[in-house]
Specification:
With 259 residues, this protein is of the alpha/beta class. The chain is built from six helices and nine strands; from the N terminus they run βββαββαβαβαβαβα. It has a domain of 163 residues: Rossmann fold (3-Layer(aba) Sandwich), CATH 3.40.50. The chain is 30% helix and 23% strand. It binds adenine.
Amino acid sequence: MPAPTPPPLPAPPRQKKTDGRNNNPPAPPNNNSTAGPAPCVMYTGEHAGARVTVVWNGRCRSHEVDLVGTVPAALGTYAALHALRQAAGPGSCPPVDLVISAGTAGGFRARGAAIGDVYVSSSVLHHDRRIPLPGGFEAFGLGRVESTPTAALRAALPALKLGVVSSGNSLDYTDRCIEIMTKHGAHVKEMEAGAVAWVARDLFGCPAMFAIKAVTDVVDGERATADEFLANLGAAAAALQETLPRVIEFCAGKRPSEL
Ligand code: ADE
């Protein structure tokens, strides 16, 4: 989402179809698949004066379900940022000013989370990448990335809660996952933010990144996760739909230090 300084990206060239696939995708007005077989789809538009690209990670061709998890999240983020960089022309790195990983999460009651809460990340990490080898492997596995500070955003939207977002590739967890999340003070667990942060910050050097996550289930509660997730998905999605436009309105035109 470009801010005025640095200047906004130039208007993208119109998409030229060659072989029926989108081989060199500029940011289109809407609904654009990224290059190659990556199944993600980009929807680009404008909100509050900012150009906004929504990336949907797509569906699994084999199992016909939405592509959840860190692998599709990394692929979708990479494909979208690469496509936006191509569209913006040479030297356009970083291609966007802010990356938001938006979605649902399980919340830890012990750390104050409740169903329907919406969290903004203070940091993101992975709880299921344990690599106890010498050198930097342990830290790489944990993949902790500090999020852009959002004091002003939270002052403007006081219902937003601040918390550590922990990513893994399972809806459930192992005892070791819980140990790691407890050690690192996770408020919520989900399946994408750590991967999005790595691509956005480490690979593309995007100047700002955070996660916005709506709570569907209580990890340390009594109810089975899948039942609770399905029962609350609609309400959590509604909370997200209500919050995200407000977040974008606040962030539009601001520098990372003003968030
Ligand atoms: N998304 C929503 N709830 C979740 C949970 N408990 N674990 C992982 N991802 C989630």
